[in-house]
Amino acid sequence: MAKPLKRVSVPSLGMPGVVASAVYTGGRRLTEIPIEEAGEWSKKPGHVVWIGLHEPSLELLRKVQSEFHLHELAIEDALKAHQRPKVEQYHDALFVVARTAQMVEGRIAFGETHLFVGRGYVVSVRHGASTTYTPVRQRCEAAPKALAEGEDFILYAILDFIVDNYMPVIEMIQAEVEEIEDSILTASQPQDQIVRLYQLRRDLLRLRNAAVPLVEVCRRLEQPGLPGIDGAMQPLFRDVSDHIRRVQEEIESLREVLAFAFESSLMTGQSQQNEITRKLAAWAAILAVPTAVAGIYGMNFDVLPELHWKYGYPFVLTVIVLVCAWLYWRFREKRWL
Question: What is the CATH topology of the domain spanning 274-333?
Fold first, then answer.
């Protein structure tokens, strides 16, 4: 009976930026390895090295580059982390860029994942807002038959995980939009929601720009002849493309809802302003009656017939009250007051 493998202390895992570094054979984890031995392990038949890095330094990337002979341009891109989703081929290796997204304090925060894929190795480099890929590793290790497919299956698993993480972001925004829609119809000042609606719509546009280019990435990965990608994996990358299209549809639908909510908020605000304007106009019309009468009798003329009439003052007051009351009743009837 074979003896179980012993856990050994791996110097690389103590380095800043190294999340995981392990070698697999037959779909099962063989052992953890230092970065300095990754290149040697990747050259062994039937072995796959899977390294996970998080915001690595240039020194660490140089070590990885020397182990797998990665292209200089790909290393520069992985260090700067300001790339659009893409897939590039450098000799016998692929360089894949994908954008990640998370909700952070009510806003969508974006990150990047850079993937180096070649015969016998996969290196993932995470920057910015991104969920750890430990669940991906655990899921793959729980399915050794699928993991035995090699580096192309690991690439698929990571891309699928990235795309699946778009949906929780969309669902959180959708729940907030529904609350805003309800508040627009009930709030006394819906103008306060306009800024938030604009922010969400702009964030969704950025999310669409981050997700949609992955369709082209997956389309290229479906094409035959790419190093490290077997033809049997094409349906899996096609499935990722379908998920991206679904995300795109959800984003477009949600942006339309936000546009309607934005317009409704503006219309509601305008309606409230019109209502206030009508009330002011109605009260101005009512107050114009006593103002006009007072202006007439305030003229400095000596001969005014009503000045010496005994009932002139109560009569004028009665007329003013009756006219104002009638105007008030009419405006109430027209729902101006």
Answer: Methane Monooxygenase Hydroxylase; Chain G, domain 1 (1.20.58)
